[in-house]
Amino acid sequence: MKAKISAKRENIIDKIDRRIYGSFIEHLGRAVYNGIYEPEHPSADDQGFRGDVLELIKELSVPVVRYPGGNFVSGYNWEDGIGDKSKRPQKLDLAWLTVETNQVGIDEFQAWAKKANSEIMMAVNLGTRGPDEARELIEYCNSDTNTYFANLRRKNGFEKPFDIKLWCLGNEMDGDWQICHKTAEEYGRVATETAKVLKWVDPQIELVACGSSDPHMPTYGEWERTVLDHTYDYIDYLSLHCYYGNKENDTKNFLARAEDMDNFIKKTAQICDEIKAKKNSTKTVNLSFDEWNVWYRTKDEEKTAERWQIAPYLLEEKFNFEDALLVGCMLMTLQNNCDRVKIGCLAQLVNVIAPIMTENGGSAWKQTIFYPYMYASLYGNGTTLKTENESDTYKSKENTDIPYLYSSVIYNEEKEQVVVFAVNRSLESDMELDVSLEGFEGYTLKEHIELYSSDLKATNTKECEQVKPQSKAISKSILLSKQSWNMLIFEK
């Protein structure tokens, strides 16, 4: 099979905001406890954070981490996680039917984020709480004033503010699974008032309002319009959440879900612009795709798990090779929509639907999806170029023509480098690829990294890494193996 990617230097989509390569840590399962934090682990530092996990996270170069949820945040009292650890209360977490020890809270997490070279995307509770608690939290985190909550932070050992500049106004408030789920009208009002007080305390912050928690929600579209009608003047981003699965074991249709993600982004951006026009506003509200991943095998696990455990094994998706192919395509989708998507969070980072897995007291290892995420974060920086792809197609379940070739092209001017990410979605045929880069005379292919397995169901475990990248020899022709993810680096 033959295929072609064409790109021109002057035909740009936009500059990539590195925050599209963000991730997510929620107080859920073993994400925090026995994930990033395990004081008894041999690699733990003086604050109890696992050093081996931290090193893997640094390999990913994660620019921003959303915290502390997720569904968890809608019942969370942030004051429970500050100050003297011996005095912190253990409480029932109704989101995941577990016990929260509160041994990690914002005091600890901000320290961990610095070690991980990440910024924090802080979510406030708009379920059981509201604007009053949010303004107290931001004073604690960001204020340098001689006032109660700023002084409480100092009393707890932190003289300087945490200076968190990105804040989420709740989580998935359209979902009836959410603690104190709200209608669009109810959420729009409380989000607006919360946005106002947050920005009064710190005018330099950016705010994300909740969009639909899934593009297939019956309220999708009208939810966005109502929420934006209330919040438009006060927020900077609208959130999108979406997970994909392969319950039917139809790999070709599964790999076509990147098109569904692309449509979701474009339709939501159009709704934002519709409200912009309605309000005659000069401001553009952009998008925060702050939950996305493959997730389906463990989706209902919490319903059958024993209740009221501490850090139980929950939602520990075991990713296989075909999952890595789709994650690679989804990252390209974010890159190709970088004119509107400015923030992205792979959900989540450790143990819970995550690229990194751990053993309590033991090893940590990389799941299959670790690699496309890592390479995108490390090499997918600069300006995304508009591309024209030519390839054969196949029919999806919805009878749509799906190109076998899926790609993105990114120009890093500083490094004088053009990086092409490409997935060959054919399960039968290798692909002979022609890459035409107009305006990049003298650029030649310097490196070809491939992620390939003959077994679509191959997984990585602590004992055996079946799926890992390989460097391919450079030749006159570029060959993309069947069912493969690829990164091609062109340099002067």
Explain this structure.
By secondary structure, this protein is an alpha/beta fold. The chain folds into two domains: 2-9 and 385-491, Immunoglobulin-like (Sandwich), CATH 2.60.40; 17-379, Alpha-Beta Barrel (TIM Barrel), CATH 3.20.20. It contains ten helices and 23 strands. A hairpin with a 4-residue loop joins strand 4 (91-93) and strand 5 (98-100). It is globular, with a radius of gyration of 22 Å. The chain starts with a strand and ends with a strand.
Q: Brief description of this entry?
A:
This protein has 492 residues and is α/β, with parallel strands linked by helices. It contains 10 helices and 23 strands.
List keywords for this structure.
492 residues, alpha/beta, Immunoglobulin-like, TIM Barrel, 2 domains, 9-stranded mixed β-sheet, 8-stranded parallel barrel, 10 helices, 23 strands, 25% helix, 27% strand, globular
Oligomeric assembly = single chain
Shape: globular
Q: What would the CATH topology of the largest domain be?
A: TIM Barrel
Share of helix, binned? 10-25%
Strands of the largest sheet, in order across it?
21-20-23-18-17-14-1-19-22
Q: How many helical stretches?
A: 10
CATH superfamily (homologous) name of the largest domain: Glycosidases
Low-confidence stretches: none
The Cα radius of gyration reads 22 Å
| Distance N to C terminus | 29 Å
- The biggest beta sheet, please? 9 strands, mixed
Structural class: alpha/beta
- The first-level CATH class of the largest domain is given as Alpha Beta
When the domains are counted, the total is: 2
In total, how many beta strands?
23
What is the typical, i.e. mean, pLDDT?
97
CATH architecture of the largest domain: Alpha-Beta Barrel
- Which strand-content bin applies to the residues? 25-35%
